[in-house]
Prior knowledge:
The structure is a homotetramer. Chain A is 67% helix and 0% strand.
Amino acid sequence: MVEQHTPAQESPLRLKLRSIIFDTDTAAGRYFDLVVILCIICSVILVLIDTVESIHAKYGFIIQVLEWFFTVMFTIEYGLRLYCSTSPWRYGRSFYGIVDLLSVLPSYLALFLPGANFTLIIRILRLFRIFRILKLLRYLSEGTLLLRALMQSGRKIFVFFFSVLLIVLVLSPVMYVVEGPANGFTSIPKSIYWAIVTITTVGYGDITPKTVLGQTIASFTMLLGYSIIAIPTGILTASIHNEMGRSRNSRVCHTCKKAGHEQYANFCDRCGSKLELEG
Amino acid sequence: MVEQHTPAQESPLRLKLRSIIFDTDTAAGRYFDLVVILCIICSVILVLIDTVESIHAKYGFIIQVLEWFFTVMFTIEYGLRLYCSTSPWRYGRSFYGIVDLLSVLPSYLALFLPGANFTLIIRILRLFRIFRILKLLRYLSEGTLLLRALMQSGRKIFVFFFSVLLIVLVLSPVMYVVEGPANGFTSIPKSIYWAIVTITTVGYGDITPKTVLGQTIASFTMLLGYSIIAIPTGILTASIHNEMGRSRNSRVCHTCKKAGHEQYANFCDRCGSKLELEG
Amino acid sequence: MVEQHTPAQESPLRLKLRSIIFDTDTAAGRYFDLVVILCIICSVILVLIDTVESIHAKYGFIIQVLEWFFTVMFTIEYGLRLYCSTSPWRYGRSFYGIVDLLSVLPSYLALFLPGANFTLIIRILRLFRIFRILKLLRYLSEGTLLLRALMQSGRKIFVFFFSVLLIVLVLSPVMYVVEGPANGFTSIPKSIYWAIVTITTVGYGDITPKTVLGQTIASFTMLLGYSIIAIPTGILTASIHNEMGRSRNSRVCHTCKKAGHEQYANFCDRCGSKLELEG
Amino acid sequence: MVEQHTPAQESPLRLKLRSIIFDTDTAAGRYFDLVVILCIICSVILVLIDTVESIHAKYGFIIQVLEWFFTVMFTIEYGLRLYCSTSPWRYGRSFYGIVDLLSVLPSYLALFLPGANFTLIIRILRLFRIFRILKLLRYLSEGTLLLRALMQSGRKIFVFFFSVLLIVLVLSPVMYVVEGPANGFTSIPKSIYWAIVTITTVGYGDITPKTVLGQTIASFTMLLGYSIIAIPTGILTASIHNEMGRSRNSRVCHTCKKAGHEQYANFCDRCGSKLELEG
Lengths: 279, 279, 279, 279
């Protein structure tokens, strides 16, 4: 577990492997990524369809064999990553290191904890390996833009959820009293569930107001709720618009190299030097 | 009830208490706020889960004890607020003063009005104390921005609701005639309820068109309604965008009066003169 | 029916009445508007609740009496409008003149066409008077802005509906073949109804896919449909943003009085003269 | 199948036909387009309503006759298009050439493959001719704008779908374990279907959570999902806003190169010099 920082001492095999496994610029690296991601998707689909009763009865054994094949593959891959990483210890503690480990552990755990109680949970824990696909995001700069827009709007969206919570908490006891347990509103928590189903316009219809007063309140809730729920869209749209504008503005100051000046700016707003006209 | 404005005559205890209870800048003040808000949340959750039949049967007594504990706490807090406020009378009549009073009253009322008819209503009135959490908004400037955006859009959203009302009032009698009581459209008010459920895309499915003509009208309603319901989102988005722009607009160049500089700009991007730092 | 354009010959009563009935600037005119609108709303509510079986059985006679009271009132109002209008013939042919006439006609028609077949339709035609409330829009400039935004987006929203139609027409036969009459998809028109209910996210649940393939297609439809249905919101938001920006920009050219210049404009874009700086 | 590029050798009839069939500028060309589109719509409606059991039983024969009438018409039209095209081979391989061929083929195929198994599929394949209506888009520049906005947002919307997929894949096994087959969550794929129905706010209500924990998770999903699903709206709105701005941006000042002048501007609003007229 000693960290090795001196590349001169490394074997050519390890260097070669590292370039295949960790690089995204070389053809071999991209091909490796592609194969791993295909394995992940196949392995995840296996876990998903294995829960379908009819498929499990018919193809249960083949699925188990394939599952072990993928587990062994992922174990080898994890070992190789540990072996050829410049710093195995840091890789092991990184987000993807832990996800890589968690993607093989459940299958081995199932050997030692064969009780029926744990089987289902362990089988489902295998789905955790889907997070490895997040590595794909390296190829997409758009993810960063959306994430920045979301984070920029974080506090505003919290305020919005807070307001929805208040509306729901005022509405729920009212509907509980108006409709009562006879019409499905058996408790205030159930009434809260109904209010959220209604205000988000999901509208399952498993609990619906039956009385005229209840339907009137529900109608106002829907209209009010719709206006209020337009807020996150508004917040996100404004944020995305900002972020897109920022990444698009290509006017660069020749003195201090600051990019992202507004379309009509005459001077750099960091160093004050004259900007050249576009075109 | 005489208003006391001369702080020189006040006892040190009262000054200390006031700084804890009313201040949001000191550590003690924030800690006090946090404890009060946690008490409010716990007490509200108690009221909520007490309406679940199974929980009431099992833990009813404990919930009642805890409820009285919180009521006594809130009563003491209300007394302290009255005692150490610079102007108890003005505090008592303020929005939060009334909310604070209403958050303890229902529990005491239940002692004097023990009739079963009132019990449920009184128990639910306790939920009123949730509004005390609104004080939290002091910490969030985003709340103000969203509220300003909503208020700025107030008249536009009224016009929108007015249009939806007209569409609903034209649509409802048509569907009432087309579908009739046999298919669940027992009256025009019921038909209005259906129209609102449909136009807001909630779609419970408790009343649905059964005839071909009814389903055709419903289909057009959904498509039309969706376009129309996009309006509040549009209004709010434009308003939020404006408000976000305005909060950035506070940085004005003293030379050419150009507003709207970015937060970290050092120089005006129109005339190139130095901008002053904020604060 | 001779048009009278010479106000000198008119009686003072007629002038006074005209100012009350047609003016919106005087206190009397506004008060008259308010009374008429309240009568309209009451009369519309009467028609609505009269269709509720239980209310009709109990209060049917009172409702009928009140209905005739409002009909007589509206008839007198219509007569007064005709009498004191500067041009009765033009008023009679105007949109509001026709709406005013249509708001009293159905009640009188019911006397001459007492057959049970027509009763329901005639009773519902009374609801037509709700359109008289549109006069309210005179007080609201916001209505114009929203209408302009909608009309500006008209062609884009048509293109959107056209695309939705194509998606629906591709999707419907596929689901009809996949699910079949046994699962509620009894014909392609029914399948189209399902597709619109799904794509607009209304989701009644009266027809739902039962097969695995059908549910898979439905899932993709929902996700695809949601992205596509975001388009009208986007179109309207951009339009409203434009309209709000146009009506808000208060920079006026002192030479040619053209308003609505952009924030950073230095010169008027109509006459080319220098604009003064803001503030 | 030899391509003929020398118009001098062409017969006047062929030239005349080509101008009618392919031109959109002449009155005859537009009239021809209109007739063809009306035929397409009628023929598509025939296929749709033929699947309604009661209509098929009653008007089945008339529909079949009309269907053959349209098929022969479309065949003649296809022949004429091949005949008078400047390059029949290129037309035959073009998108619309293939769609035109596919719109007549199924009817003829039905003669050679009369088995009941194929009948339904072949009858539905006729609906393919609806794509011929896409030619209408030539008349609408708005379609291009929306398409550009969609394509511009393509990668961002892919990132969004990827995030929704991850949320759905985390949520589904959790709900499968919490609710279990007894409450309708019979397998993880079914649970995924539920998650998509919920997160897109369609909310059929065919599968709904029954346990308290399940309803709590579902409530959080709806609120979370709503915020996340606001993203495509935000992305599209920003894109449409950009595209609308770009179409305005075509007016550029030749002196200072400032773009983005309004359609009716006479002078540049930055440097005050005269703008040239469009076209």
